[in-house]
């Protein structure tokens, strides 16, 4: 079943903090670093982001297919290392990682736990780690001036419809609850509408029409927009030597912005999941980059993603 934190305790043992959580029938313990004071958040285990990046890069480099009856790993069976190299050389900057491989890899337990409980924070961190691996595994000295592309992390899982404890069991749309907001969930449904794909700025550059100062804005993924400041601070940055800029003086510089493809899909409950006499429930599924234009209305699918609550304007 889906990893569910049914209990957590803290203890001081040999100068280490231990976090305990349950994954189905298995009990997992995460050990903190030796010695020193470890930051603690109530009900959570605080992990240094650099530790997560390091563990993810190690996982991509070293995870390999095992051979039955063999004592050592065969050469050339590095699953994700090879996939990353092949995709990038083919011009597809993405890596598809199975969540089941993360949970079974001996040094990726903390990584899998953080990706499932705080995906909005740690998925972008893993994508930064993929850029580091691009420099290490794909980039050549002859292309030193080449800009490192953004690489998309695509998480998959072996959906278990029977609900055995070692896999993530898909949920019905009406089973999603508020406590799962901002967590990684697996849902099943049928596509009832697909909006036309469009371009969205992931990095926006704005310029003041008065003092010509420029700012760079980072736009988060999902149903988020860039927050353009109403006042320019160019006068303050120049020590007050120029006239104060008028309000709302910023405009976008399209040639310097970075765009990604995005699409919104409406996913509805499967007919067999709707109780008799009730109206089917649905929600919007946001996809971007290499997940755009992958399905059509009427497609039944199992999706893994971040369950998010957003403010929608009343049109």
UniProtKB/TrEMBL annotation:
<dbReference type="InterPro" id="IPR031327">
    <property type="entry name" value="MCM"/>
</dbReference>
<dbReference type="GO" id="GO:0043138">
    <property type="term" value="F:3'-5' DNA helicase activity"/>
</dbReference>
<dbReference type="GO" id="GO:0006270">
    <property type="term" value="P:DNA replication initiation"/>
</dbReference>
<dbReference type="InterPro" id="IPR027925">
    <property type="entry name" value="MCM_N"/>
</dbReference>
<dbReference type="GO" id="GO:0000727">
    <property type="term" value="P:double-strand break repair via break-induced replication"/>
</dbReference>
<dbReference type="InterPro" id="IPR033762">
    <property type="entry name" value="MCM_OB"/>
</dbReference>
<feature type="domain" description="MCM OB">
    <location>
        <begin position="172"/>
        <end position="309"/>
    </location>
</feature>
<dbReference type="Pfam" id="PF17207">
    <property type="entry name" value="MCM_OB"/>
</dbReference>
<dbReference type="GO" id="GO:0005524">
    <property type="term" value="F:ATP binding"/>
</dbReference>
<dbReference type="GO" id="GO:0042555">
    <property type="term" value="C:MCM complex"/>
</dbReference>
<feature type="domain" description="MCM N-terminal">
    <location>
        <begin position="53"/>
        <end position="154"/>
    </location>
</feature>
<dbReference type="Pfam" id="PF14551">
    <property type="entry name" value="MCM_N"/>
</dbReference>
<dbReference type="GO" id="GO:0005634">
    <property type="term" value="C:nucleus"/>
</dbReference>
<dbReference type="GO" id="GO:0017116">
    <property type="term" value="F:single-stranded DNA helicase activity"/>
</dbReference>
<protein>
    <recommendedName>
        <fullName>DNA helicase</fullName>
    </recommendedName>
</protein>
<dbReference type="InterPro" id="IPR012340">
    <property type="entry name" value="NA-bd_OB-fold"/>
</dbReference>
<dbReference type="GO" id="GO:0003697">
    <property type="term" value="F:single-stranded DNA binding"/>
</dbReference>
């Amino acid at each position: 079943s889906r990893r569910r934190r049914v209990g957590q305790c803290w203890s001081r043992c040999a100068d280490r903090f231990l976090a305990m959580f349950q994954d189905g029938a298995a009990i997992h313990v995460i050990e903190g670093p030796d010695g020193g004071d470890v930051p603690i958040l109530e009900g959570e285990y605080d992990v240094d982001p650099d530790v997560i990046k390091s563990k993810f890069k190690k996982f991509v480099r070293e995870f390999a297919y095992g051979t039955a009856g063999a004592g050592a790993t065969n050469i050339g069976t590095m699953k994700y290392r090879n996939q990353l190299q092949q995709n990038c050389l083919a011009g597809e900057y993405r890596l598809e990682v199975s969540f089941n491989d993360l949970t079974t890899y001996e040094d990726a337990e903390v990584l899998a736990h953080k990706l499932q409980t705080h995906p909005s924070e740690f998925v972008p961190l893993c994508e930064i780690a993929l850029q580091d691996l691009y420099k290490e595994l794909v980039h050549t000295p002859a292309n030193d001036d080449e800009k490192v592309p953004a690489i998309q992390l695509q998480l998959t899982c072996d959906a278990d419809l029977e609900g055995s404890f070692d896999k993530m069991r898909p949920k019905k749309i009406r089973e999603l609850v508020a406590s799962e907001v901002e967590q990684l969930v697996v849902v099943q449904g049928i596509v009832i509408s697909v909006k036309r794909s469009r371009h969205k700025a992931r990095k926006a550059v704005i310029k003041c029409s008065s003092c010509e100062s420029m700012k760079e804005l980072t736009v988060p993924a999902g149903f988020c927009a860039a927050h353009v400041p109403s006042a320019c601070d160019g006068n303050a940055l120049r020590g007050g030597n120029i006239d104060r800029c008028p309000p709302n003086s910023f405009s976008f510089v399209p040639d310097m912005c970075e765009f990604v493809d995005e699409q919104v899909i409406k996913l509805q409950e499967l007919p067999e999941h709707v109780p008799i006499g009730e109206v089917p429930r649905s929600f919007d599924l946001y996809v971007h980059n290499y997940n755009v234009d992958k399905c059509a209305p009427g497609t039944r699918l199992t999706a893994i993603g971040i369950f998010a609550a957003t403010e929608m304007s009343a049109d």
